[in-house]
Amino acid sequence: MTDNVNKSRRNLLMGTSAVGVIGAGFAAVPFIKSWLPSERAKAAGSPVKTDISKIEPGQMINVLWRGQPVFIVNRTEKQTAVLDSLDDRLKDPNDETSIQPDFIDSKFRAKRQNLLVVIGICTHLGCSPKYYPDLVPQSFDSEWQGGFYCPCHNSRFDISGRVYKGSPASRNLDIPPYTFLDENIIEIGTDGGTA
């Protein structure tokens, strides 16, 4: 009789232990999943794909990446033709203090000469500059050659996002990593494999 009681107890304990282990596993899954980033957090840092095929020459679109506005400008030949003439008016025409990927050159600051991609936040105090594409005198610059003007503290940037001398902004507009997936799609947040 003792063997039957011990076997019953043993079976009861084994069954209870098995249920307890399975229950602990089910309880642990939500707890462990809570350590993973949320979909919203993943999306906040994820690369962003944008169709650039409909951006007309001279036009700018605004894309949101990591909570920051990114300006994509389809520059005209007339706009880029003036870049060489501006070097003596700029603080950093050669991008020595710029925050940008390695593939950026100092004149066009782009993978494609016509397509500028910059973070639309002034490098002074974080306001968002406005796009002034026309090469005509403006109230803030009688020799304006197109570009960006930040009305918060009067920082001016040329059509490549390079900061003018006399502006409170300390450096050129930042350039995010980006790559072209094909002729019409740009991905902001990667530069060919790295995020």
From TrEMBL:
Q: Which residues form the Rieske domain?
A: 108-187
Subcellular locations according to the entry: Cell membrane
PANTHER family the UniProt entry points to = CYTOCHROME B-C1 COMPLEX SUBUNIT RIESKE, MITOCHONDRIAL
**Cellular component per GO, a single term:** plasma membrane
Which Pfam families does the annotation name?
Rieske, UCR_Fe-S_N
Describe the function of this protein: Component of the ubiquinol-cytochrome c reductase complex (complex III or cytochrome b-c1 complex), which is a respiratory chain that generates an electrochemical potential coupled to ATP synthesis.
Alphabetically list the UniProt keywords: 2Fe-2S, Cell membrane, Disulfide bond, Electron transport, Iron, Iron-sulfur, Membrane, Metal-binding, Translocase, Transmembrane, Transmembrane helix, Transport
Q: What is this protein called?
A: Ubiquinol-cytochrome c reductase iron-sulfur subunit
Q: Which NCBIfam families match?
A: Rieske_proteo
> SUPFAM superfamilies from the entry?
ISP domain
Q: How is the subunit organization of this protein annotated in UniProt?
A: The main subunits of complex b-c1 are: cytochrome b, cytochrome c1 and the Rieske protein.
Annotated coiled-coil positions are none
The EC designation for this entry is 7.1.1.8
Family stated for the protein in its record: Belongs to the Rieske iron-sulfur protein family.
Any GO MF annotation of the entry: quinol-cytochrome-c reductase activity
Task: Assign the protein's first listed, main location to one coarse class.
Answer: membrane
Is-annotated flag, keyword Cell membrane?
Answer: yes
Does the record carry Cytoplasm as a key word? no
Q: Where are the transmembrane segments?
A: 12-32
Q: What else is known?
A: The Rieske protein is a high potential 2Fe-2S protein.
Look up the record and name the cofactor or cofactors this protein needs.
[2Fe-2S] cluster
Catalytic reaction(s) noted: a quinol + 2 Fe(III)-[cytochrome c](out) = a quinone + 2 Fe(II)-[cytochrome c](out) + 2 H(+)(out)
* UniProt cross-references to InterPro entries, sorted A to Z: Rieske_2Fe-2S, Rieske_2Fe-2S_sf, Rieske_Fe-S_prot, Rieske_Fe-S_prot_C, TAT_signal, Ubiq_cytC_Rdtase_Fe-S_su_TAT, Ubiquinol_cyt_c_Rdtase_Fe-S-su
What does the record say about its membrane topology?
Single-pass membrane protein
